[in-house]
Amino acid sequence: MYIQENTMRNQSKVYMDSKEDEIILCIPIMDTSIDNEYIHHIFNKLNMNVEKIIEYINKSNEHLKRVIIHLKNRENSQPPSQTQNQTQPQKKNIFEYIKNRIDQNKDVKIVHNYPYYWKTVKAYK
After folding, report:
1. What's the average pLDDT block by block, 10 residues per block, for the chain (125 residues)?
2. What fold is seen in the domain 21-122?
3. Would you kindly state where each structural domain of the chain is located, as residue ranges?
4. Which residues, including other chains, have CB under 8 Å from residue 18's CB and lie 6 or more apart?
5. Angle at CA of residue 26, ends 24 and 29, nearest 5°
């Protein structure tokens, strides 16, 4: 586990472990009407495999929930395409971008239905 001291609030956060090809994201606020199938669909469009989704209903507002999502990079799990031309520039790997932002303890905004987005952060216990 990775422990970081938050000196401003004098609290410590214990972050969930993640492997090199895995990201564990937290969406702190999400409407309960959004189901797991929709979450899977959005991350599949980003070329990521959703391994597990954990939901926590908000105690003060039962119409909101917190969601923890375990993601894996689909590009690492599939062999490279034979039809891909080597002279074409490679598209930016979204998984690596998100992983770098999360590892730097920055947030990532994922647009799921323009103009609506989820603000995601690194998951912690």
Report:
1. 34 54 94 96 93 96 97 66 48 84 95 95 87
2. Alpha-Beta Plaits (3.30.70)
3. 21-122
4. 24
5. 165
